[in-house]
Queue: 4 jobs
Job 1
Amino acid sequence: GRYAAIIYTLDERIYKIEIGFLIAEPSGLSLKRSGENNVISWNSPGTVQKPSGYQVFINDRPFKTVEDPVADVPRTKGKADLYKVKAVYKHGSGVIVSAASDELQDHITLAEINMKQEEKLAAGNYALVAAGLKSGEWEKAKSLLYENRPLFTAHLAKPQQDDAAALAVFFNRIDDGDRLAAEAPETVKSLDKAVEAFGQAPEKAGGLDVGYIRKEKIGLIMARQAALKEQQRKEQQLKDLQLKEQQQKEEQLKEKQLKEQAARVARAEPVMPPERSSAEPLTGQVTPTSGIKQAVIDFKEKKYTSAFNNFMAVYSSQIANIQKGGSGYIKGVLGLPPRYRAEILFLVEYERLREKNSNDAEAIRTGLEEMFGNIEGMQGPWAIITEDKRTLIKNHINDFK
């Protein structure tokens, strides 16, 4: 540090030096606002010798000298002034001035300047957002909004601040819809969710008209939905056609195999005259046409035993072969007309289960459920039964109580 001293000389020779006191500068400057001016204060140097006064500087220019460690100073509007202070010490017949304190900037005015600049920037950027929405350049407006959200929240006027917040909520809904619309794989369901998300976006965001964005987004998604549904319809149509062709080929092949098997059996066995069943009507009692007609009616009304007896009256030999099983089973099935083949197969099994289980409905149902599985798997004769007939029999099994 520097010290005050007195030097004694004689004939230009130093014969005595008296060391006085430490010269120290003020420290700890602080500032507060007082009306249109500022008040600065500081700490006196912690030395034995106290300063006789203090020189105050504003922006490196001397302002005034004060006795106490506090001073009223002017404030330059629109500018953050710099302040510093020097200590003045009496020494002999003169004075000694210390080095300057650390500079103190008018942080209050600086904050006000920064605030005004931020407010001006926020207002300008918000005007660009609003202009972008009006001109249809909403994607640029959205990017600018997202970039300036903290600025808008802190420095926009209340009405514009509320509009900016509402606009952010609106674009969040739009972003949700975009994310759903971009999901892979694209499905009608995912696009439905996207439309629902876009639909939650409001028509207006505060005082800003944004409804056209919502309509545009929903329109694009619905167009994609329509195209996807049409594509799926064509694909399903092609699959159904291919499946139908495949089923027809399989049914034709299985029927051919059954016929070939029946032919081999027929060549190996002597042809026996059909046995008359006790259920067959006497000549003149019923005609085949009326018997079949009544059998169909009884079947629809779930009068299964009556339906069986009426079919038996017309197709007794075929049904007898089916009931015997073995090699005669195939001949019996193929001997039935395709139109009634499914109903008769069901009735034969129903009658077998009824007689076997003494009309126990639960046991009959259990047996019919096994038949249901054979129908589902297209086992045995069910391989040559058409799909609509298989469905008919399954419905009767499901309805059985």
Job 2
Amino acid sequence: MSSSHGESTQDAAVGIPEALMIGTAKANFDKPIDYSTVADKVAIIVGGASGIGLAIATELVRHGALVAILDINEANGATATRELLEIRERSAKFIRTDVVSWDSQKSAFKEVLSWARNRIDIVVFSAGLRPNNIREYLNPSNLGTEPSAPPTTTLDVNVTGAYFTAHLATWYFTVIAREQQQSALIVPPDSAIDVIIPPFRPQLLLLGSLASYYDQHGCPDYGASKHGIRGIWGALRHDTADFANMQVNLLAPGYTETPLMEPAVFASLRDNGIWVADTTDVVAGAMRCLFDPEVEARAICIARNFDGVPGSGNFDLSDDPNEFCGGREVLEHYRAGSFHRVAGHRENNS
């Protein structure tokens, strides 16, 4: 097998820089975040009409950002926008968007550019559907039953939607940077772009899951989709000099309590000793990725905090080849009781 440049896959592998194997510096969660950089930034939250996406949008608006919510649910979108506008006038816009449609997403991005005077600084993909348990489709009533096609909606939204969003973000970040440079006469219009790093670099944040690292038993569509999002992140996070020097990070929440989680599900998880994070823990992780310039090409796991401080349970997954691509961190935190009740570890916390 050969690459598009004619070199063999083996040659390409040998030529991988050691820096890519080692990765970037781990996130420092003790470092204060400078929220002054949020003011007047233009953010797109795909899937931002409810749950984690809305929580991130709300925090951005509180700190002075302009937020466009792209979501298919018009009722939730209208409610979310109204709530955001109550925090600050002219701070939010809802655009009905079908994330599995390329044309719908592209049209929405163009509408944001028109609304925000040709600026996009932040793109967050938080859209997602729940898993389908394969056992529900592999229980034929009799041996003569023909198999029916399994649902693909979770794959469509979680992977195809994320892929379209990442492509559009990368495209528009690059185009906007070129236009800004040309207007400033930094380079001739037909020259190769040597991007100058601005004080705030464009941000692409993808919402994966602990299921991006840990097997999702019986739910291959969800497991595949979250590994797919991780794959998109991994493919884009290193070569960002070609794309306006954007920063690409990944959030990997475990179970998280949101308005979408049914009370019975939350109670069942709690009764079985599974720790459930709060949306504030996810928001803290998102703000760390978006507004700490030293957090670059990192994957952050969102785990429940046990001290009442949002985000204090979060940790860097060390998702780099020399660190076993996150596997060691997940195993160590699993054994330490970060995700579930373990004898001798936090068993008295409710």
Job 3
Amino acid sequence: MRTPAAQPRPAGPPGRLIPGVLQGVEFAPGTARLASGSYVVLDSLVRILLADPSLRVEVSAHTDNSGTAGANLHLTNLQAEAVKNYLVTKGVPFQQVVARGFGATVPLTPDTTPRGRAANRRVEVRPSAAGP
């Protein structure tokens, strides 16, 4: 399950978190194994988090409605944790990142077309008001 190729995010002014979809963060189909192209985007997020230790973020993983609700939730929990683990291996304190999987419960678009399903398979990052 791959999302369409896109430009890496977070973008914008250097050192500033842009909440939303982390364009370019992908996984091998049906797994929590990060695709190699994901690291450029995640390294950008690492720099932002290391520059501002007070910034807490939630990393959320989402999928389309293929498969069962339980399997999708489990997969997205693993994917969100994989992103968090990568950030931590790069020096981000684990307390700075909350990882959550949502399965297919928060779609961006209807899952009625291949393009819609691809858009729903995503990783997002948002500021978190509280630590883990």
Job 4
Amino acid sequence: MKHYIGCKLIEAEPALRINGEVIQQEGDYIDIPPEATVEEGYRVRYPDGYESWSPKKVFEKAYFQVDDSVVQGENNVSRRMVDEFISHAMACSSPPIEPHVVRVMCVLRNGTTIHEKFDCVDPQLFDENFGEKMCWNNIYRKIEEHLDFLIKMGKNGIQ
């Protein structure tokens, strides 16, 4: 068999599977028998209307929540979406090797690493905070572009 990659825009909500039956949570309380087998997960609805249940870890590894405005056709990637797609980041200036240089490294939730560097030619004008801000602006723009690509792929497929 050959390998394929795909991306779908789906609907989902948290749901429990109790003794093999998917239970949609309505309210804060569910009466669960002590001997019951309970699994946390999500009830999922695909674009063709097919519904299924997915275990929590499997679902959360594969899917990322988008804002409602994206689904309504605005295609705007929000600041929240960008912030939540960042796993961790670090910034540093690098004297004495490269004085007047700021570097920012950002790792996304999918393992992608983005590096940005800000150089200042005139040492008297060097401002580490400004350099870091410029790096972050570039990183956010790149993440927005990546998320926009995924959203369009999820909505439109490959065609």
